[in-house]
Amino acid sequence: MVRINSKPLFALLLSLFSGSALAQLNLFACEPEYAALFKELAPEANVYSATTAKQDPHQVQARPSLISKLRRADLALCAGADLEVGWLPMLQMKANNAKMRPGGDGMLFASDFIDNLDQRDSVSRFDGDVHADGNPHMHFDPYRLLQVAKGVSQALAQTDPDNSASYQANLQRFEQKWQSAISTWEQKAAPLKGTKVIAYHSSFRYLYHWLGMQQVGDLEPKPGLPPSSSHLAKLVNIAKEQQPMAILVTGYQDPRGGEWLSSRTQVPLLILPMSVSEKDGINDLFDLYDTVIDSLLAVE
Ligand SMILES: [Zn+2]
């Protein structure tokens, strides 16, 4: 019989069955910005994003692959405030995961951790596809995103209590890096204060709010509707009066209305990334903010 020294073996087994080796969480994000946040707060976890930066998060197909990912998820993080109202309920129902049901422990919404801008008391069906619970595209407000990070970190620790100390440490590291990035961004973006833009939808509402910019026109006549020619004609006048520095469109929006307006007004068209996209070299939230601010400064 071969005798082996049982001490190192015991230590190895212990390390396998305790702490991070045991718990590899499955984390489901509705949008890539929240997958990126999960990666900051739980770098060892399996993180999955239901959509890419090139997909419209208002309109997603509840595909079988999404259903099976949500079925196995320990925690899910979505924007909330009705952004995913067209597809997430179906996904939750089909996933049949008790934690992911409405009100379930594992289902997190960024909007629950913050106050959304532009909340409305009442919305009529004539208003188009507006967000009654406020604007859900909050990930371009770095302060609100930090509040969300704190809430998500707590939920991670509750889901995986053995590793709560490491989630706490990850949050602290992220918060330090993020705070210092905020002051760099604010200094750099100072020239954007008071500038005007025309944009597609209220996608960058929180960025304007943060940096003191103003959206003077929307390519959508009503939220969710594509630009009509009469609406574009109005925007030509607005552009002449208001002198916006750019027309902003994001990756999943049809650029044609913006291109036409740009050709008529000589206001440059900027296609800004809506989210993290490794394919485009935007690997994390820091890259995303850098890219958006640098692109705006380049035309300012
Ligand atoms: Zn929206």
Structure write-up:
By secondary structure, this protein is α/β, with parallel strands linked by helices. It has 2 domains: 24-185, Nitrogenase molybdenum iron protein domain (Rossmann fold); 189-299, Nitrogenase molybdenum iron protein domain (Rossmann fold, 3-Layer(aba) Sandwich), CATH 3.40.50.1980. 42% of the residues lie in helices and 11% in strands. It has 10 helices and 8 strands. It has helices spanning 6-17, 32-41, 64-71, 88-95, 142-159, 164-188, 205-211, 229-242, 256-265, 285-299, and strands at 26-29, 46-49, 75-78, 107-109, 196-199, 214-218, 246-250, 269-272. The strands form 2 sheets. The protein has a 4-stranded parallel beta sheet, with helices on one face. The protein has a 4-stranded parallel beta sheet with strand order 6-5-7-8, with helices on both faces. Helix 2 (32-41) links the parallel strand 1 (26-29) and strand 2. Helix 6 packs parallel to helix 10. The radius of gyration is 22 Å and the shape is globular. The N and C termini lie far apart (78 Å). The protein binds zinc ion. Zinc ion binds at residues 58, 131, 137, 201. Zinc ion (ZN) is lined by residues 58, 131, 137, 201. InterPro entries: Bact_metal-bind_prot9 (IPR050492), ZnuA-like (IPR006127). It comes from Paraferrimonas sedimenticola.
**Which radius of gyration do the C-alpha atoms yield?**
22 Å
CATH architectural type of the largest domain: 3-Layer(aba) Sandwich
Largest sheet: 4 strands, parallel
CATH superfamily of the largest domain: Nitrogenase molybdenum iron protein domain
| Helix fraction bin | 40-55%
Mean model confidence by pLDDT: 92
- Outline: globular
Name the hetero compounds present. Answer: zinc ion
What is the third-level CATH name, the topology of the largest domain?
Rossmann fold
Please give the domain count: 2
Distance between the termini: 78 Å
SSE succession = HEHEHEHEHHEHEHEHEH
Tell me the strand order in the biggest sheet: 2-1-3-4
Query: What is the number of helices?
Result: 10
Strand percent estimate: 5-15%
CATH class of the largest domain: Alpha Beta
Keywords: Signal
GO molecular function, one term: metal ion binding
Organism: Paraferrimonas sedimenticola
GO biological process, one term: metal ion transport
